[in-house]
Amino acid sequence: MTGRTARVAGVMLAGGRASRMGGRDKAFAAVGGEPIAVRTVRLFHTLFPQVLIATNRPERFGRLGAETVTDEFPGSGPLAGIHAAMRRSHHPFVFVAACDMPGLDPDVIRFLLGRVGAADAVVPRWNGDIEPLHAVYAVRCLPTIESCLRTGQVALRDVLPLVNAEYVDEAELRAVRGIAQSLTNVNTPEELAAVGGRFEECER
Questions:
Q1: Which one of 49, 83, 104, 123 has the lowest number of neighbouring Cβ atoms within 10 Å?
Q2: How many Å from the N-terminal Cα to the C-terminal Cα in the chain?
Q3: What does the pLDDT look like over 87-123, one tens digit per residue?
């Protein structure tokens, strides 16, 4: 565990309803013969001193060897999961990733962590948009996040202008090996099939 990851908790967000996946739990779709959630938690344990899963169904993740946290603001999307994880974090930063990212790359994660500096958030720009669910956040943002949740501003895009966010340009990211794979997510059965994934018969 390097100095740049020792002050960071790894957070997997697994609170979505998977409506575009026909209600099946994306976290347990298998890619390369391994459920995405299992791979993510295993990778995070190699990188971070604390691993958290933000989910409203903690019973599904009990065997993965990570702490689970549930939303204090139910129905408020990923922002509520980040809020819950920050409240449990023992460290000043969290690296957040969605549970539908089968190709998370440790070198890409380290690259983003190396950009933290004085920023409250380090967020990639990719394919003409931002990717706030593969990003680093400072726990000191917690009061701002909680204030937004209390006033119904539940989109991360509402919060980022209120903190000192650094956006890493796509041109710079394209020089980082593994970046495209790391930022790939699978929201639909078609996207899952495109990366060779499927739902195993043993899905819990």
A1: 49
A2: 32
A3: 999 999 999 999 999 999 999 999 999 999 899 999 9
Q: Say what the pTM is.
A: 0.90
- Residue-level pLDDT at 197: 59
Distance CA 110, CA 128 (A): 23
- The encoded tokens of residue 113 equal 């962590």
Coil, strand or helix at 46: helix
Are 120 and 141 in contact by the 8 Å Cβ rule? The answer is yes
Question: How many C-beta neighbours within 10 Å does residue 81 have?
Answer: 29
- Cα–Cα distance measured from residue 86 to residue 190, given in angstroms and rounded to the nearest whole number: 33
Compute the distance between CA of residue 5 and CA of residue 26 in angstroms, rounded to an integer: 27
Residues 60 and 191: their CA atoms lie apart, in Å, by 23
CATH assignment of 8-192, given 3.40.718.10, 3.40.50.150, 3.90.550.10, 3.50.50.60?
3.90.550.10
What whole-number distance in Å separates Cα of residue 50 and Cα of residue 191?
Answer: 30
Q: What is the identity of the amino acid at 147?
A: S
Four-CA torsion 159, 136, 94, 184, nearest 10 degrees? 100
13-47 pLDDT per residue, tens: 997 654 444 456 778 887 778 889 999 999 999 99
Q: Closest Cα partner for 134 from 164, 85, 163, 100?
A: 100
| Distance of alpha carbon 47 from alpha carbon 28, whole angstroms | 21
50 phi-psi bin (left φ>0, alpha ψ -120 to 50, beta other): beta
